[in-house]
Amino acid sequence: MDTEDVYQEYANFVFKYLLTLTNNDYQFAEELTQETFYQAIKSIDKFHEDGKAKFSTWLCSIAKNVWLQELNRSKKRQQLTDLLTNEKKSSYNLEEDYFKNEDKIHFFKQAHQLTDKKREILYLRLLGDLTFKEIGSIFGKTENWARVTFYRAKQQIRKDERVDES
């Protein structure tokens, strides 16, 4: 039996097997089928030495290995792409983080100028992520009191910023 006869006899069987592995991706299954037969021709001596498995089973094991190798290659390509993408982001983020840090320093300098109560309410709301109701209960006041005090603290910081800019 020559390679052309083998291909004619088993290609459809291997293709259908690979079609199930590739979730019905016809083009991918075709490419893998071609690679499967290429690998089978390269290692036909191993099949004859073994002689225990059916030829179709041997071809399917090659097909599965070819499929797994391609998945592994795709995964590595994706990891490399992700790594390069993250590298671009991190270099961009470094500059962005610097400005965020500068903004934080400026914010905390402004907050330091507030009264103790206003500063604490600001911190509880922004850093502690507490609701106005929770802040009010901490101070023994109403939710509305906490909301108004927070608003006034923000306004004072904005006013102080405008003074600093002029």
Automatic annotation (TrEMBL):
The keyword Transcription regulation applies. Gene3D superfamilies: 1.10.1740.10, Winged helix-like DNA-binding domain superfamily/Winged helix DNA-binding domain. Residues 7-76, 113-158 form the RNA polymerase sigma-70 region domain. The keyword Lipid metabolism does not apply. Keywords: DNA-binding, Sigma factor, Transcription, Transcription regulation. CDD domains: Sigma70_r4. InterPro entries: RNA_pol_sigma-70-like, RNA_pol_sigma-70_dom, RNA_pol_sigma70_r2, RNA_pol_sigma70_r4, RNA_pol_sigma_r2, RNA_pol_sigma_r3/r4-like, WH-like_DNA-bd_sf. Belongs to the sigma-70 factor family. ECF subfamily. This is RNA polymerase sigma factor.
